[in-house]
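Task: fold both queries, return tokens.
Query 1:
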Amino acid sequence: MTNRGRKFRLADGLKRIVVLGGGLLGAATSRFARRHGIEFYVFAGPRQASQILSDGRSVERLWRDESVNVRFVDDIRGLPDGPYGLAIPGAVILSFGSPFIIRKDLIDLYGGRVLNCHNAPLPEWRGGGGYSWRIMAGDRRGNTCFHLVTPGIDEGDIVYEKSYRFPKSCRKPIEWQAHANAEAAKGLAFLLSGLRSGKAFRLRRQDERRSTYFPRLDSARQAIIDWSNDGASIENTIMAFSTPYSGAYSWSAGRRVAIFDAKFVRRSNGTHPFFAGLVLRADKDKFSIACRDGVLLVPKDAVVGDTTLRVGQRLWSPSAAIDAARELRPIYTPSGLRDAVNADQKTRSESDK
């Protein structure tokens, strides 16, 4: 790699690609490598094998369909045939949702030739949580971004980026994923072709004055509906934890209920904060559920639980459960979820990569 004049290029050409994580962009990278005779290796965490992609396949099924021998491992250190042993001139690491900590020694071993794909307008929206945070915020700015990996979280210089907007037809996280993958695939093709041809990419430093950070989420315990919020915020919460996640949840008649879809309709009269959560109507195909400033229209097939909603029932979430969801700080390892509350900076740096 050369970085004189703040540019990035592979001085030795592109001879080997090591992917950490994977998914649909990882598979597209494997096809590029196959077409051009470039060595290709992929390493993922055991928890990623069963993750469902935007095309409906699991990660494990994807790699099987691609005839790629993926290694699902807990740790990439110490593997004689792992990333540490694959560093040669012309080798590059690409991170697509890497579950592993990419440490400075690995970055140095590759001469800085380690890039991460982050589909957000960096330096805003650093960290994890997928698209759920942005759906909650109503921020439809998309950005295909490949940046150099540094020991800090999503802080490295940007090698390539192209902005876009998520259309209103994208409501569920899986729809955001599909759109972002389609956009990122274009940027990936340009990046890989440029790296192979020796193109010099001009680097851009991130403006730390605009940086924001968001941790990972655990939808099973944090996707709680706070009925004291305004209706638009409740709709965004429900959509943020919809497919492929476990749904936003509340309780009715003492039983937990998950909701996967809703549309808020604002009303200027006939509302009151005490109405929130009441099932006002039960039509053939949808429920009308009161909010403090309007009504949520919820398709009946978007409600999952061991109780049947009826007119006059109330959905409600205890304040203690809401507080617990806010206090929780989920920590993920390559194998799965490990709880942590009020994690310190060191733990955060190690877990959110």
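Query 1 returned. Query 2:
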Amino acid sequence: MLKIGFLQFEPQFADVAGNLNTVMNMLETVEADLMVLPELAFTGYAFNNRAELESLAENPYESDITEALFSLCIRKKMHIVAGFAEKDGGKCFNSSLLIGLAGLEMIYRKLHLFNTEKNYFDPGNRPPAVWPVGGAMIGMMICFDWIFPEMARTLALRGADIICHPANLVIPEKCQYSMVTRCVENRIYAVTANRFGTERGVSFTGGSQIVSPDGEILHRAPAAHEEVATVDIDVGLAHRKMITLRNDIFEDRRPEFYFG
């Protein structure tokens, strides 16, 4: 069994220290193996331009945020997936960090930028990957990646049992319903950690959720409140790819007939 969960809150734009303090306080009493935070959890989301993003983005290997989360992971013996504005040389990525007992263990850079994100973020330049956490394999997506079924399928084919999905969702419930389908069609778990509130005229929808490989919503947060939620899962359920005695969802694929 593995205990996984999400933290849903309302980040304040550009208040990096304050947002970090909120996250640290909310997680201090949590007992879990894996926790997922929202997209861009520490900077906020609604940048006006590239210069504003560059002033807030950080190198995660030289960040007080990473150090604080690493310290928390050590004390709590957990892993954390956190949305992060990443600066790497002259580029800025909408990224997700996996932090655990070994420090910063993996970085995913958002491949599918949404709407005005294209004005200031650089598109991700690394393929989706998986990483071991507590006897499970996890993969990461970020927000708008949900609308591309290739993302979840690629992670599942690479061995993911759990998709960690930091998000700043603005379209009510469309993603939440779609992530149920992503879980069913790949027989995996997914944790979508969304934010709520309104920032510079952009409204976010909350409704963070954890979904099972059977498409069961194990927990869903309200639309407009802080919440930390955890559930116990059987990772072995994500290893069972048979949906009938004669149908394995991966072995029955016919990729020679598929096209992009």
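Both queries returned. Flag for query 2: The mean pLDDT is 97.
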